[in-house]
Design a protein that fits this description.
Transmembrane segments: 6-25, 46-70, 82-101
Region (Disordered): 125-172
Strand order of the largest sheet: 1-2
Largest sheet: 2 strands, antiparallel
Radius of gyration: 29 Å
Keywords: Membrane, Transmembrane, Transmembrane helix
Biased composition (Basic and acidic residues): 128-141
Number of helices: 4
Structural class: mainly alpha
């Protein structure tokens, strides 16, 4: 590949990486900023993910520029390189979107756990093992109806749909 076609390929590749990186940065920042108390954390995460995207894509550009395509300096050879680079860019873009989705999903689960802790009366769960031990203790209790006079938890059942009451035991 001649110097002119090599330069054109690199310039076009860098421009495509920069444009796609800006799209990812701006969209990712808005995507992670929603419902977040600390927008700085979402912004920092977006910068890190976008920087990784740029490094991977520009590295792929450098590697693809050294691959020999039939045709040398011809337009089909340059278009072949651009095609391979565009496919690589698309894969990198999809992986980056997956990273953003995973990060947001983790945040949603954290928020749900915090709201659940507030609903259950605890401001925050200081030690997850302490919460697990409470759950384990509750699960170790018998699930059958205790004999009259015996302590234990009552089983929880759905109401009967016909009479809007507890299920019958077969006696009508």
């Amino acid at each position: 590949m001649g110097t002119d076609s090599y330069t054109v390929f690199l310039v076009v590749g860098i421009l495509m990486a920069a444009v796609d990186g800006q799209i990812i940065y701006r969209s990712g920042r808005g995507y992670l900023d929603q419902e977040r108390e600390d927008p700085g954390a979402a912004s920092a995460m977006t910068v890190l993910i976008t920087a990784l995207f740029h490094l991977v894509v520009l590295g792929a550009l450098a590697l693809i520029s050294t691959v020999h395509f039939p045709g040398g300096d011809s337009m089909p050879a340059i278009m072949g390189r651009l095609g391979v680079y565009l496919l690589t860019l698309a894969v990198a873009h999809a992986i980056t979107l997956g990273v953003f989705a995973r990060r947001r999903e983790e945040r949603v689960v954290e928020d749900l756990n915090a709201r659940t802790a507030l609903i259950n009366g605890a401001a925050a769960v200081p030690d997850p093992r302490a919460r697990e031990s409470e759950v384990d203790a509750e699960l170790r209790e018998p699930t059958t109806t205790p004999v009259p006079g015996q302590e234990g938890r009552q089983p929880k059942v759905s109401p009967n749909l016909e009479q809007r009451g507890p299920y019958s035991t077969g006696q009508f």
